[in-house]
Amino acid sequence: MDTIFYNGKIYTEDRAYPICSAVAVKNGVIVALGADEEILKTAGPETEKIDLAGRLMLPGFVDTHLHMLFYAQEASLIDLTDCRSYGDVKRLCAERVAWAKENDKWVQGTGFNQDDWDVKTIPTRKDLDQITEDVPLTIRRTCHHITVCNTKAMETMGLLEEKEDSTQINMGFYEDGSPNGILKEDSQNVVTDALPLPDKEEIKKLILFGCNQAAAQGITELHSDDFLLIPGEAGERVMEAYRELSEAGELPIRIYQQCMLWGKELLQDFIDKGHRTGESYGFYRVGPLKIVTDGSLGAHTAYMRKPYANDPQTKGKANYTDEQLYEMCKLAHDHGMQIATHCIGDGSLQQILDAYEKVQMENPRTDCRHGVVHCQIMDEEQQEQFRKQNLLAYVQPVFVRYDMNIVDDCVGSDLARTSYNWRRFEDMGVHQSGGSDCPVEKFDILPNIEYAVTRTNRELQKSWYPENAVTLEEAVKMFTYEGAYASFAENVRGSITVGKYADLVVVDKDIFEIPVGEIHTTAVDLTMVEGKIAYKRQ
């Protein structure tokens, strides 16, 4: 026996044996469960025996939607998350200007949310010019659907001469017709294009940083959307970096790649190179095609069927026509790929429901596990369509912390009440897994579990449609078994079951015994991936 954990509460997520006190691991696989005395008898002279001292063990956490490389990259940017005014933004960014000028770099901030400010207005390039006129400066909104640039940055990117009636860039303009520096959606890629691209060794460093940070949160598997780190490529450089790390045994946790490929040409290139869902390189596997159909509620770019209640001039923006979306789905579906589609508005959701239904009718496939990322704004009829198609829901419970303050205003209370409705999905038997959308939110799993159950903003003591919450047991399942199910791995991971891989997490509090509103205070003590300790709290 390699490792024995004993004297704990082991929550297995396996109905056949839900709770035990000890588990034995050999060659990366769970080989025995039971009482302390029984399992300790199997120890050999080389067995590592770990006393849980009453602590709780759970199956390893799975985050089924985030942007890990962007998180790692943004760790070096100015964190604007806690800013409560534009003045705070100015102060933090100004501190970086001298360094950027000296080193020929840009000043970049991320995570601002004007809804948290005293004046709830998104700044423009002229506002950012007050910070610096000499150094390119950009700040990205917390939703990652808006980036604001100063004049120097706009000039560097060649965007100052763009005209509202002829531009191909999704951007804003002042009343005098000049660009206001606000870039939206995929047009933000012009910023990335203007910056030096990381080489393969830099990408590896980003991967290892992000994976180690995730392991410290009890995460054993990430479903990460990373391809846009290198715009214009069909993921070649990113995949190569991951493969080399995995084949060298240096990848500490599992990665299931959500393959972001903008447009049919990049997807065709990817397929022509022989890539498919399930392609495996140890801890690194190719997952679904990732499609982004719309934007965000906060930016009013989520695509709605009806105009926004608080902005009747717009229904948001669809990134694809119905035909374009169908063609993307058909190409992926016909070549055996899984598909995961970003949909926040009910308009974009209807688009993808129709596209999925059409491609499946034309080419029936069993167990393709197509899904929808976010699944936010929807009515009950759409939920029923979702169920009938047996789609996966990738949800982010922590989003309610902020979104509860804007959804009713954006879409009206009738539609808000049927949205973010994880309770109904559970009752309907829909497979829904949990994610963080990091770096939009932190990838801390335990607070996510808490929000799934409470739907309460702790700071405001505000609860939002609590009848749509799930139970604690269901929330844990979202981030364990259902995460494994989303990557076709439920038979080998996702529960503490004899014969499955030893992907485990130990936490310092029993989340089933403490008040549910205190789950976020729980700390991860140990993370194990396939029998190897990936993180241990000092």
From TrEMBL:
CDD domains: YtcJ_like. The keyword Cytoplasm does not apply. Residues 50-535 form the Amidohydrolase domain. Keywords: Hydrolase. One of its GO terms (molecular function) is hydrolase activity, acting on carbon-nitrogen (but not peptide) bonds. Pfam families: Amidohydro_3. This is Amidohydrolase. It comes from Emergencia timonensis.
